[in-house]
Write a structure and sequence with these properties.
By secondary structure, the protein is an alpha/beta fold. The chain is built from 19 helices and nine strands.
């Protein structure tokens, strides 16, 4: 009898803790696993409205995935790249018929997923702006696979397309409800939820998870109606002192793979991607986003291009492939080639949007206003 009572005491003791764990994980939901609003945001963008995320580590790739599935079958221009290209807007490219499909940290696998998804959904585009950055060409950046919810679903498919093989159409993904449910009971997710509460405070109880952009929310981080990215007003007002602090903390050895060369496989696939796109009659433009002078100087003081091979090898490759296939190219990793200043950046990597049209030409090669 005593053991029976002890058993119930344990249940009554642990049950509230389990309930607290589950309720916190599901309600706070820092990764938006249970409140994924990426389709809502994508639909808002495609309907011509900007949209914001009010809370959580929103699913950027989910937004772009849903945009690809539902966007018009023929688009004038798209931009694809990591966060360095997320700020490119229709006003920069010279046409309103434009969608920015870039997302943070977009790597080799992500690129192939995007182009594979567009091929499967029969999406066409007249022009594409490709951001040439180490995330695509550095094997260390993509060896763990894609961050898309469906993993590397279209990678092998798209590689077969580019290699002239008979591609096998990927199977439809099935929702993994068990995986989602397991996060409700996850202690690790609970720890993330608690940290999110600590960082946001009562704000998370007041703010909607997403919404259509209006004059009351335009100071929040948000998407424009073309899928491009706008940082919050606080971030846009970043001081030079704060920006330099970002530069000093930036892990250059890791982010630029000190001592490593570009992946030959990614070089080969990128060239085949260019051939595939131009073979469809698509105009391909290349974009190299510069580093801030203070970050470039840090690299020079740590061995320079004799240690950070990727920067030199990629810029040489980008210019060679532009000449080989008569592509338009704009930009350079070396800020001194472009005369950009530290003040032109929000942080250690991202250029202020208002400076894009000053230093780069994203218009069509046929209608270019200035030489790149």
């Amino acid at each position: 009898m005593k053991s029976w009572n002890l058993k119930w005491l344990r249940i009554f003791f642990f049950l509230p803790l389990v309930l607290l764990l589950v309720v916190t994980n599901v309600y706070i939901d820092p990764a938006n696993i249970f409140h994924n609003c990426s389709k809502n945001v994508a639909d808002s963008i495609l309907n011509g409205h900007g949209a914001y995320f009010g809370s959580g580590n929103f699913d950027e790739r989910g937004v772009k995935l849903n945009m690809i599935k539902s966007m018009p079958d023929k688009v004038g221009c798209i931009a694809v790249g990591p966060s360095l290209a997320m700020g490119i807007r229709y006003s920069d490219v010279g046409t309103e018929n434009f969608y920015n499909l870039s997302a943070s940290g977009l790597n080799f696998n992500d690129y192939l997923n995007i182009f594979g998804l567009m091929k499967v959904n029969n999406k066409k585009f007249d022009r594409v702006i490709l951001c040439v950055d180490s995330y695509f060409f550095d094997e260390n950046r993509y060896k763990e696979g894609s961050s898309f919810s469906f993993g590397n679903k279209y990678v092998e498919y798209m590689e077969d397309v580019l290699n002239g093989k008979n591609p096998k159409l990927p199977e439809e993904s099935k929702d993994n409800k068990f995986k989602e449910l397991s996060q409700a009971f996850s202690i690790t997710y609970f720890q993330s939820s608690v940290k999110y509460i600590q960082s946001k405070g009562s704000y998370i109880l007041k703010q909607k998870r997403w919404g259509i952009l209006d004059k009351n929310t335009e100071n929040l981080t948000h998407y424009m109606s073309d899928g491009s990215w706008v940082y919050s007003l606080d971030y846009r007002n970043m001081t030079l002192e704060n920006m330099i602090d970002y530069v000093n903390k930036y892990n250059i050895a890791d982010m630029f793979s000190k001592g490593n060369h570009v992946s030959r496989h990614s070089i080969d696939i990128f060239e085949k991607l260019v051939l595939y796109l131009t073979g469809m009659g698509t105009e391909v433009n290349l974009y190299l986003c510069p580093l801030p002078p203070s970050l470039w100087d840090r690299i020079q003081n740590d061995g320079g291009l004799n240690e950070y091979y990727i920067l030199d090898e990629l810029e040489i490759f980008a210019n060679e492939i532009a000449r080989k296939y008569n592509l338009k190219i704009t930009g350079s990793y070396n800020p001194y080639n472009l005369n950009v200043q530290d003040e032109d950046f929000y942080d250690a990597r991202h250029l202020r949007h208002e400076q894009l049209s000053k230093f780069f030409d994203f218009t069509s090669k046929a209608g270019s206003k200035k030489e790149s």
